[in-house]
Design goal:
mainly alpha, about 400 residues, about 80% helix
Length: about 400
Amino acid sequence: MLNGLWLGFFIVAAVSALAQWLIGGNAGIFAAMVESIFAMAKLSVEVMVLLFGTLTLWLGFLKIAEKAGIVDWLAKALGPLFLRLMPEVPAGHPAIGLITLNFAANGLGLDNAATPIGLKAMKALQELNPSKTVASNAQILFLVLNASSLTLLPVTIFMYRAQQGAPDPTLVFLPILLATSCSTLVGLLSVAFMQRLRLWDPVVLAYLIPGALALGGFMALLATLSATALAGLSSILGNLTLFGLIMLFLLVGALRKVKVYETFVEGAKEGFDVAKNLLPYLVAMLCAVGVLRASGALDFGLDGIRHLVEWAGWDTRFVDALPTAMVKPFSGSAARAMLIETMQTSGVDSFPALVAATVQGSTETTFYVLAVYFGAVGIQRARHAVGCALLAEFAGVVGAIGVCYWFFG
């Protein structure tokens, strides 16, 4: 699947470039595409420099958590749920605890912590995979839920809006929470359908129903807070959670007689090994995306969508926010650039900017996640992972647009 997808990016880019040259007379399009290939290769290395430090740091702390028994405790606590969602994962396996930590970090908007934890979880699942080049059911479910981007505290979106002068940076908090819940639900249901998972199992419902009630109660509580209090809570809770996890790992490790420094270094070495293996996959995917963007294919698609929306007689204001939605599955940095550009062009509190911010906070870089998570363990056949992840991504975009019309339309 990834082979055909990667080749398809280049073919679509080539067709678009030929059309611009032969029909539009733009002979410089090929120079732009070649320049984009080298720029993306450079960007891949720059991303890897950041990943080296992050992976080394967090896999060091995770090694302490493993030896301190924290990961085992999480695995036992959530074992009954994942025994039904991931029946091929044995009860008490360390992957369950790592998956839980990854979801918690994603939910709090702690991207730098979530990625190395997720890679560690994917490696643990790979140990159980009978076919080392084909994604297992458990790996697909984990990746799709990860790519659905369940975010409870979108701190980075608040930061972007504040930088652009928004009087109320947290204005999109509840829209993002609703839209990201939609994408996660669709991702879970799509994988459950493909893998014939029994979500109506009493044990599964015993976990999901209290979780849904807790989320609803949390949303109701947050709705009573002022914008200032909400922004302060978001920042404090995110940073406290991040630092609190570090201290929890260290203190529990010390109480369990773990040699925390030596263990950290041991885990950090693993992080270095994981990071260096990611570069070929990043170069391959980012260069393909760069060519697709430089060829003008994405702009052509946006114009087509606008004409279709006008033909259907619908409001077209949301179309100006679609560049963020269109590039988000491929590149987080490009999506951030599109978001900021929309804020600057249309105004930080304009409808397109609000939609773009909600999309940015409720969707994930699907193909980046595929390349990094599957690439780290050598998966070549993604099976239904791509389709389910993109369906969740689409649900997040549609949910973001619908919720923004509800809140701001």
